[in-house]
Design brief:
The protein is mainly alpha-helical and about 250 residues long. The protein has ten helices and no strands. It is globular.
């Protein structure tokens, strides 16, 4: 710990760099556990595919029986948890060593951006292996299911990276709520989100606009949908920074 303190007392770029190093000092939260979860979910699906094939026997299964799978979405949403955990574990420590909240925020979003890119490219590479092995030998598509199966791998990587950026940056907003108000703030935050979602659904229903909503999603490619969600990453970052500026480090 004492070796890091002098670094935090110098220029802003060094404090940002120190924040980044502290975030990745314990790789379990940000680097190891998410991959373990993703591989675990994949292996569970792989086992289910084999069980279904054995149960079907000579009758076989449909040509696209294993083409649609939402397993990857589990780890995508888990990135919100990763962001909250990372901020909860490091905010008080880094700011307590002399870093400004601005330096901490920019160091944190740099880490989150790097993680989003790493996981996005990593999943795309696994999708490439999936294609090369004809769906892991059982025509099963986990890392690039449904419409992703026919997309160029760079589009798969860009789609996942974009969605992960949204998850991480929204997670930064949730993390900022937690470091400022604790568990009560988190409860209030998610209750407010639930009310907002319900109000949005009510407004769409009142306006009889569900067909327009459906057309928006069905007329666009997965990459276009992922890129259209990026403004939410900006919103999450702005909200997170605004809340963090007033957060008090806890001893």
């Amino acid at each position: 710990m004492t070796a890091i303190a002098p670094t935090l007392s110098v220029a802003s770029p060094h404090r940002i760099g120190a924040t980044i190093r502290i975030h990745i000092a314990n790789p379990w939260t940000t680097l190891i556990t998410p991959w373990l979860i993703l591989i675990g979910v994949f292996l569970a699906n792989f086992a289910i595919w084999h069980i279904v094939l054995m149960a079907a026997g000579d009758k076989g299964v449909g040509a696209d029986a294993f083409h649609y799978n939402g397993g990857v979405s589990w780890v995508v949403f888990y990135m919100v948890v990763v962001a909250v955990q990372a901020m909860n574990q490091t905010f008080s420590f880094v700011v307590g060593l002399g870093a400004t909240r601005r330096d901490y925020f920019f160091g944190t979003i740099t880490v989150f951006g790097g993680l989003a890119l790493m996981y996005g490219v990593g999943v795309a590479l696994l999708a490439g292996v999936e294609r090369a092995t004809d769906g892991w030998g059982v025509d099963g598509w986990f890392f690039a299911p449904g419409p992703f199966a026919s997309m160029p791998l760079w589009e798969v990587a860009a789609s996942y990276t974009s969605v992960l950026l949204v998850m991480f940056f929204m997670g930064s907003a949730v993390g900022a709520v937690f470091v400022r108000w604790g568990a009560s703030g988190i409860i209030t935050f998610f209750a407010s989100v639930a009310v907002l979602v319900l109000a949005t659904l009510w407004a769409i229903t009142q306006a009889d606009a569900w067909s327009s909503v459906g057309h928006f999603f069905t007329s666009r490619t997965p990459l276009e949908l992922a890129l259209s969600a990026l403004p939410f990453a900006v919103i999450g970052g702005v909200v997170g920074y605004g809340l963090m500026r007033r957060a008090t480090p806890k001893g």
